[in-house]
Amino acid sequence: MSYKVAIVGATGNVGREMLNILEELNFPVAEMHAVASRRSKGVEVSWGDKTIKCQDIDSFDFSQVDLVLMSAGGDASRAWSEKIGKLGPIVIDNSSAFRMDPDVPLIVPEVNPDDIKLATKKNIVANPNCSTAQLVVALKPLHDAAKIKRAVVSTYQSVSGAGKAGMDELWNQTKAIYGLGDAKPKLFPKQIAFNVIPFIGSFRDDGFTDEEAKMWNETHKMLDPSIKLTVTCVRVPVFVGHSEAVALEFDKPITPDEARAILRDAPGIQVIDKQEHDGYITPVDAAGEHDVYVSRIRKDPSVENGLMLWIVGDNLRKGAALNAVQIAQLLDETGTIKPSSGYRTLTV
C-alpha cells in the first residue's frame, strides 16, 4: 500500500530533510508533491533521483493526497491544518500550533505510540518541539524503571532551530568578524557568532520563555504530568545539533551502570559514555544521525537518587523531520492512514 504525500514548506531546512528521510526509510510514496508559499512556486527540490517543482499552497488541491507533512511555521499551520484535515488527509504538523490541543495527539513514537489512536479526531498529529523530542526519548526508559520526580534541563540549541536564516546569520557574522566587517545581529537579539544567547522565543510574565514552557508542557503531555521540570534554553553558535545537560531526581535509587544498561536497550538511543576523549558525543558527531545520543551518565551527589546526563541529537532529524516520518510510519503500521477515495473539495 502506498500513499500520495504533500510536503508543505518543502523549500525549508526541515521540509528538505523530510523529503530525504522519506526516501531513506523507504516510506511507501505513490506520488510526492512539494508545496510552499506563492513566492516559492516553481522552486525545484530533490525527491529521490528526480527534482519536483513547488506548487502554490493557495491553489494546491489537498483533497487528492493521503498525508500532509506541514513544516511552514505556526501561522501556516493555523491557517491550513484543520482545513486540510477536514478533507480526509492526515496532517503531521511540525509547528507548535496544535501541540497542546486536547484533541490532537502529540507523539514521539518511542515514547507514546499508543496515542496514535487519537489521530482521527481532527486528522492532525502534532510533532513536538525539537528539544523536547530528544529529551523524552532519553527520559522515557529511565522513568519507566525508576520514576523521575524532578528534572533540571539546560539546552544548548543550534542556530538551525531558527531555520535557514539562523544558519545564514551565524555564517555571515563569523565571516564579518574575521574580515572586520559588520556583525550586527539581524535575526537573533544579540551576536551569535562566538557567543551564547540565554534566550529563545519570547519572554513570559514569569520570566521564562515560551521555548522553555514548551519543553515542560510537552513532556507533561507525552510522558507524565507529575514530573517537576524546569528549563533554561540557550542558543549556541553551532549549525546543526541540540545538546542538553540534564539533572534527574528519581523516586528510587538507580545507579549510572543501571541507567546505561536501560538506555542501551531502549529504542532510538545510543549510549556513548566512557571517561576518555572519544567517550562522549558532541553536536558535530550527531549531525546527520537518526538516534539520540546519551553521554556523561553520572551520579548527582547533591540530591538523593540523582543522576546527570548529556543528551545530543540532530534537531533537523529526530527533532523534526525524522520524528514526523516515524509518525507517518506509525500511521501506516496501525492502519490509521488509508489511501484516498474521493475526498471533499477544499473550500477556503
How is the topology of this model organized?
Blueprint: E1 3-8, H1 13-24, E2 29-36, E3 44-47, E4 50-53, E5 55-56, E6 67-70, H2 74-87, E7 90-93, E8 124-126, H3 130-146, E9 148-157, H4 164-178, H5 210-222, E10 228-235, E11 242-250, H6 256-264, E12 269-271, H7 283-286, E13 292-299, E14 306-313, H8 317-333
Parallel strand pairs: 1-2, 1-6, 2-5, 6-7, 7-8, 9-10, 12-13
Antiparallel strand pairs: 3-4, 9-11, 11-14, 13-14
Helix pairs in contact: 1-8, 3-5, 3-8
In short:
This protein has 348 residues and is of the alpha/beta class. The chain is 29% helix and 23% strand.
The topology string of helices and strands comes to: EHEEEEEHEEHEHHEEHEHEEH
Tell me the span between the first and last alpha carbons.
31 Å
Q: Any idea of the CATH topology of the largest domain?
A: Dihydrodipicolinate Reductase, domain 2
Low-confidence stretches: 342-348
Any overview of this molecule?
This protein has helices at residues 13-24, 74-87, 130-146, 164-178, 210-222, 256-264, 283-286, 317-333; strands at residues 3-8, 29-36, 44-47, 50-53, 55-56, 67-70, 90-93, 124-126, 148-157, 228-235, 242-250, 269-271, 292-299, 306-313. The strands form 3 sheets. The protein has a 6-stranded parallel sheet, with helices on both faces. It has 348 residues and is an alpha/beta fold. It has 2 domains: 3-128 and 321-333, 3-Layer(aba) Sandwich (Rossmann fold), CATH 3.40.50; 131-315, 2-Layer Sandwich (Dihydrodipicolinate Reductase, domain 2). The longest helix is centred in the middle third of the chain and has 17 residues, at 130-146.
